[in-house]
Amino acid sequence: MASSNSLMYSLFQRSLEDLIKGIRLQLHGDSSFISKSLDEIRREIKLTDLSTKSIALQKLSYLAALHGVDMSWAAFHAVEVVSSSRFGDKRIGYHAIAQSFNDQTPVLLLITNQLRKDLNSSNEYEVSLALECLSRVGTDDLARDLTSEVFTLLGSSKAFVRKKAIGVVLRVFDKYPDAVKVCFKRLVENLESSDQHILSAVVGVFCELTTKDPRSYLPLAPEFYKILVDSRNTWVLIKVLKVFAKLASIEPRLAKKVADPICEHMRRNVGKSLLFECIRTVVSGLSDQETALKLAVAKIRDFLVDDDPNLKYLGLHALSIVAPKHLWAVLENKEAVVKALSDEDPNVKLEALHLLMAMVNEDNVSEISRILMNYALKSGPLFCNEVIGSVLLACSRNSYEIVVDFDWYLSLLGEMARIPHCQRGQEIGHQLIDIGMRVKDARPELVRISRALLIDPALLGNQSLHPILSAAAWASGEYVEFSKTSYDIAEALLQPRTSLLPPSIRAIYIHSTFKVLVFSLKAYFSAQESTSSPLVEESTSSVSSPENAFTYKSISSLVNMIELGLCSLSGTLDVEVQERAKNVLGFTGMIKHKIAEEVTAQGSEIEASRAVAFMEDVFSEELCPVSATAQEKFPLPDGLELKENLEDLQEICGEFLKPVVESNSNLFSSSEKISFSVARLRISDQQEASSSSSHPPESASLLAEHRKRHGMYYLSSQKSDDHNDSNGNNNTLNEYPPANEISADSFNPKKKMNQSKPRPVVVKLDEGDDFKMKPDASSNDEPLSRAIQTALMGKGKEKEREKDNHERSLDPGIKEQSSRKEKKTKKKNGEKSSKHRSRRRSDKDAIAAKPVEIVDFLL
Predict the structure, then answer these.
(1) Rounded to an integer, what distance in angstroms lies between the CA atom of residue 785 and that of residue 302?
(2) Are 75 and 83 in contact (CB under 8 A)?
(3) How far apart are CA 344 and CA 113, in angstroms?
(4) Which of 748, 745, 743 is nearest to 374 (CA)?
(5) Given its phi and psi angles, is residue 421 left (phi above 0), alpha (psi -120 to 50 degrees) or beta?
């Protein structure tokens, strides 16, 4: 019955071609058809007929490759198909194994004998199938068990088999390093083969091996040199050049030896691929050879002027390799590099941009920046922002070390903001603030640039440029003393168009306006104290000071403008903007009332001056840059739980976080408007202490009880609650909203860098400001490297060394004691033998770490 079913399935079984046609005919999705096909495959693959089973496995492999169907359940069936005597079935089985097997496949070891059988087959195509399968799914066990078969095939008389066996060596060496002792000598012998296919395969294997540890293969330099001189096969020469590029970087004498043959290849009329590989070998490994380097640079110039964008990109790439050591090569081709910025290929433009940034220094930063900004104007969004980002990164590197004239650089930042497609608002805004904090001499120009940015209407409607406006608003208020007229700054901050900004940016505008007001009032009262002139007469006096000097009329005009600009914001829905606007309005109302009193009211003038001095002291502390690693230098306080799960904090503190609706609700019911009185302002320490201690006793008791019950969430501190209150007051002053992004309209370079101007002092932080990656020490103690060094130095010499080290490590007295008391003191002998093993291991490591001697042909 089973045989009849098998016959029926084989007669009416659909082939892979039928499956593909059926999938293509599905109009409403192929998921249902694939599921039906899988059910059919499951039934067919369980049959005993290998032909039916192989066709089912072939269809399953197709569905797994193109539609992601899981075929791990058919692993055992693939092993069965591989055992078929028919070559077609065997090929389907090996393909399925290579596609679906991995190191965790349970039935992987079942194919060991089948692989051995096929590797010893007289049919070279069956041997080829087995080698390809071993190269894909070979594990440690398979590599160990089949090393002898691979060794035999390395000397096969059939070139088709031998070149595939050479390729499998990579997988075998990687999984089983001890195979080097068996196969390495025969692998090296294939370097002398006259067959170009075999030679190409073996050179490709060594090209891959040298990428891991090139020092181990220095003794093979004579064989590679012979191939470099004698061979005319392009692909063989390319691989040999890759090998020499790695070997020459660790052995200078080798670079001198191979320079002449490489130059001969460059002078010949060779293909572009071989010519470029010669150039890359010279610029990467032979850059100290002057003759070869000049010839390579000349060939690079031919690549740069070629119309083919691929060759132009390769030329730029070669220049980028040689640029770190020999910048003159890039400077000689500066015109070609600049011209490449206008190429249609985006990869060519990016490579040219990277080369230009490699040439930037103190002398040419202005010229290169001007060239790049002109190209940014004419480019699309992607390349435009790449150009701007590269200039920003190059100029800000190492605390702006290549920037001499910061006035020029600040004007350049302002011009960047007006470039169309600019999306680097976050970086530009950060640098505006950073320069203001680090370079004191640049603050006047920073304020001028900031005001120009604030009044530019094109920046307000672009969300990507809002971080620049945020930084400009902050700098205008923070360094308002460097402005020509503070009235213009306040006017720019309060313009009606600021309604287009988000609330977080408008809050910064309002706070900067408050700083401008406080500074102007301070300057006004200082002038009054110095001149001792009446308030009324000062309304007709003129501004005589070069700095900001104010009359009664100008101060009144400034206060009226601020009140008019902020009046509409006092009723906004955003609480941050509303609170800051009402604070400024309350302060202006208080000051305006006091400065308008008669001259006879000397007390009011003194009180107003004291109020302004108090507010001026709040902003007098200068902000300085902070190292990015400053927080890491402070130890974690005891009792602070940073990793504690706080999800249940709401439940724990729920009863204490309820709003108190008692006597506190009547505190502000008497007045709806905000009113201030200078008479109530107290600056003395005693009055501050008395006001800070007047907390409601109920809230204080709740806080104490909560601290007692949930002490793990509090810092252990000896400071009083008054200190917490003062911290709270300070936080309201320093709480600036985050910035966002930018773009603009036109670019007209207006300011040139002043070369004669001395470089101002730039505040630099400690070494912790820059993150330095520690290079990983590469060890030469890998099993494969040690095995190859052992094979190259000779087995006899290595055995002699091990024997001498063993005898040197064993003391004669210890040997006598160990022979007499071997049965009595096993523990002591174990300890001594472990010591001997450690000594032998250290000697072997020293031998492995010792550089391989270079053969005499290099001398």
Answers:
(1) 41
(2) no
(3) 58
(4) 748
(5) left
Residue 718 identity (one-letter amino acid): Q
Kindly state the tokens that stand for 669: 């019911």
Cα 725 off chain centre by:
41
Which two three-digit tokens encode residue 316? 């730029």
Asked whether the predicted pLDDT for residue 704 surpasses 80, the reply is: no
399: left (phi over 0), alpha (psi -120 to 50) or beta: left
Measured distance CA(86)–CA(94) in Å, rounded: 12
Q: Which pLDDT tens digit goes with each residue over 140-183?
A: 999 999 999 999 999 999 999 999 999 999 999 999 999 999 99
Q: Which residue has the tokens 């608002």?
A: 425
Question: How far is Cα 107 from Cα 678, in angstroms, rounded to an integer?
Answer: 90
Rounded distance, CA 138 to CA 303, Å?
43
Q: Decide: residue 419, CB within 10 A, 0-12 exposed, 13-18 middle, 19+ buried.
A: buried
At 87, list the tokens.
């070559």
501 DSSP assignment = S
Query: For residues 859 and 221, is the Cβ–Cβ distance under 8 A?
Result: no
Structure tokens at 644: 């504690």
CB atoms within 10 A of CB 695: 13
Residue-wise pLDDT tens digits, 559-579: 889 888 888 888 888 899 999
CA 179 to chain centre: 40
The residue assigned the tokens 């045989």 is 3
Are residues 436 and 443 in contact, defined by beta-carbon separation less than 8 angstroms?
A: yes
CA 679 to chain centre: 58
What is the chain's alpha carbon radius of gyration, rounded to the nearest angstrom? 41
CA-to-CA distance for 57 and 436, rounded, in angstroms?
71
Take residue 440 and report the two structure tokens written for it. 């004191």
Q: Please give the backbone phi and psi of residue 605, each rounded to the nearest 5 degrees, phi first.
A: -65, -40
CB-based contacts of 739: which residues, under 8 Å, 6+ apart?
A: 425, 426, 429, 430, 466, 467, 470, 471, 505
Read off φ and ψ for residue 856, nearest 5 degrees.
-70, -15
pLDDT of residue 633: 77
Give the closest residue to 172 by CA, choosing from 163, 183, 161.
183
3-state DSSP of 698-712: HHHHHHHHHHHHCHH
Integer Cα distance of 530 and 96 in angstroms = 96
pLDDT exceeds 50 at position 363? yes
Query: Is residue 221 a contact partner of residue 253, using CB atoms and an 8 Å limit?
Result: no
Nearest CA among 659, 636, 493 for reference residue 565: 493
Highest mean pLDDT among 458-467, 621-630, 681-690: 458-467
- Print burial letters for 195-223: b (CB count within 10 Å at least 16), e (below 16): eeebbbbbbbbbbbbbeebbebbbbbbeb
Residue 85 in 3-state DSSP?
coil
Using alpha carbons, select from 590, 775, 773 the residue that is nearest to residue 677.
590
Work out the number of other CB atoms within 10 angstroms of the CB of residue 655: 9
Determine the Cα–Cα distance for residues 283 and 273; give it in Å rounded to an integer. 16
Q: Which of 346, 419, 433 shows the shortest CA–CA distance to 389? A: 419
- In whole angstroms, give the CA distance from residue 367 to residue 370: 5
pLDDT at 819 over 70: no
Q: Other C-beta atoms within 10 Å of 730: how many?
A: 12
Question: In the chain, what is the greatest distance between 2 CA atoms, to the nearest angstrom?
Answer: 125
Would you mind telling me the total number of residues written for the chain in this entry?
859
How many Å apart are CA 820 and CA 811, to the nearest integer?
A: 15
pLDDT at 39 over 80: yes
- Contact 624/763 with Cβ under 8 angstroms? yes
Q: CA 51, CA 13: separation in Å to the nearest integer?
A: 11
Task: Give the rounded distance of the alpha carbon of 599 from its chain centre.
Answer: 65
**Residue 291 identity:** T
